[in-house]
Amino acid sequence: MISIETFRQISLSFEEAVEEPHFEKTSFRVKKKIFATLDLANKKVVLKLSAIQQSVFCAFDRLIIYPVNGSWGKQGWTIVELKKVKKDVLKDALTTSYCNVAPKRLSEKYKQV
Predict the structure, then answer these.
(1) Contact 28, 34 (CB under 8 A)
(2) Where are the alpha helices (DSSP H) in 1-113?
(3) Whole-angstrom Cα distance, residue 110 to residue 86?
(4) Model confidence over 98-107: pLDDT tens digits?
(5) Euclidean distance between CA atoms 36 and 26, whole angstroms
(6) Quick check: pTM over 0.85?
(7) Structural domains of the chain, with CATH
(8) Quick one: how many helices (H) and strands (E) in the chain?
C-alpha cells in the first residue's frame, strides 16, 4: 500500500512538478500539463499514458492498474489503486506519465535507456 504522503513525495520529486486543485481532485502538473490526479477519498490515482504504455502497465494486474472508463481510458488515462500497488510499479508508471507530458529537456532526465 502506498500512502497519500508517499505518492505526493514521489510526484513532487520530478523537476518543476507542482500540486494544484483540479475539480474535486488534486492534480500534479508540469508546465501546466497534468501527469497525475489524486482521488483522496478513494485512494486512487489517474495517470496519462500512451495506449501501448497503458496495455503494458495494465498487464501487470488489472485489479490494480486499469483504464479509465470510456473515451478518457481510450486516450491513455489509467487508474492506479494506491491501496494495492507496489511502490516500484507506481514509481515506474508515474515517471512514464510525467515524461509523456513534460518538455523534452525535463523528460530526458528521467527516461531510462
Answers:
(1) yes
(2) 4-12, 51-60, 71-74, 87-101, 104-107
(3) 20
(4) 999 999 999 9
(5) 8
(6) yes
(7) 4-107 (3.90.1150.30)
(8) 5, 6
